[in-house]
Amino acid sequence: MAAALKLITFADRKGARVGALAGEDKVLDLAAAWAGGAHAAAAEDMLALIEAGSPALAAARALLAEAPAAFLLDRAAVTLRAPIPRPRRNVFCVGRNYMEHVAEGDRTRGITQSEVPKYPQFFTKAPECVIGPEETVPAHAGVTQWLDYEVELAVVIGKEGRDIPRERALDHVFGYTIGNDVTGRDLQRRHGQWFKGKSLDRSCPLGPCIVPAEDLDASDLAIRLWVNGEKRQDSRTSKMIFDVKEIIHQLSAGFTLRPGDVILTGTPEGVGYAMQPPRTLRPGDVMELEIEGIGRLRNAVAAD
């Protein structure tokens, strides 16, 4: 079985462009390989590649199989960016989508009998929140004293649709990546609606790559997070209350999803504010997120 295609946005002295991971230590420069050819437009950026659809994906797979030396770069010589460095619209998010996370949040408010949410709880993060692997997350020390992490499976939409039936929802998925829904917990509670606490600048690391949906069944993947090497979150995507199909079905009701939209699907238990005693993120802390079949996303917290 061929290895999964792992699409990236990367940068070097020639600028940012799209590519694919080739093994452990190489990057395939799709933009250079396709320059002047039939797929040149698809290599302008990741959004163009997503909109180009199946033909571009097939061409990328074929090129990766050949792995022409002229278009291979050392991974150490490039910088990975967020796969979609600046989404066209807000990043859509789902809150309270793992039951154990619902329960741990309730316990911080003195609630001992948690109820399963009846509907997905949607909110958004602004496009300016998005950063890539190894970029720093500001501590925002003058704004929040309760900075926290959340590892999440991120869905990338590939096909436009509204009122999407559950049974056809996965037809609209381009692929999957990893997201970190960094949150100011005190702001989240203070403002009632979650947008303010969830939408601090540089609070949405994404990456390291997008794995196309045809290469990855996301229904039961290991999902984990470490802070400074200490495992904090460890679950499986099969424990979601609302799975990817249901999220897309519900979010698209009366609302058009478009290619390149990003949906974060919720975080499992193990967040810092629910620990005893609570543990918040501080400058110097290193967050490492991992989802089976996708890879690892690493970001550190930096002083403002």
Which features does this protein show?
single chain, 304 residues, alpha+beta, seven-stranded mixed β-sheet, five-stranded antiparallel β-sheet, globular
Give the number of DSSP strands.
Answer: 19
- Are there runs of 5+ residues with pLDDT below 50, and where? none
Order of helices and strands: EEEHHHEEEHEEEEEEEHHEEEHEEE
Question: Structural class, from secondary structure content?
Answer: alpha+beta
Strand content: 25-35%
Give the strand order of the largest sheet, numbering strands 1, 2, ... along the chain.
7-6-17-11-12-14-8
Average pLDDT, rounded to a whole number, is 97
Main beta sheet: strand number and arrangement? Answer: 7 strands, mixed
Number of contiguous helices: 7
Instruction: Calculate the terminal CA-CA distance, rounded to whole Å.
Output: 46 Å
Please compute the radius of gyration using only Cα atoms: 19 Å
Helix content: 10-25%
Morphology? globular
Notes on the structure:
- This protein has 304 residues and is an alpha+beta fold.
- Helices cover 17% and strands 32% of the residues.
- The protein has seven helices and 19 strands.
- It has helices at residues 30-34, 46-52, 54-66, 99-107, 185-190, 195-198, 244-251; strands spanning 7-12, 15-22, 26-29, 72-74, 79-81, 91-95, 121-125, 130-131, 137-138, 147-148, 151-157, 173-180, 183-184, 204-212, 222-227, 230-236, 262-264, 286-291, 295-302.
- A seven-stranded mixed sheet has the order 7-6-17-11-12-14-8, with helices on one face. It has a five-stranded antiparallel sheet with strand order 4-3-2-1-5. It has a five-stranded mixed sheet with strand order 9-19-18-15-16, with no helix packed on it.
- A hairpin with a 3-residue loop joins β18 and β19.
- 46% of the residues are buried.
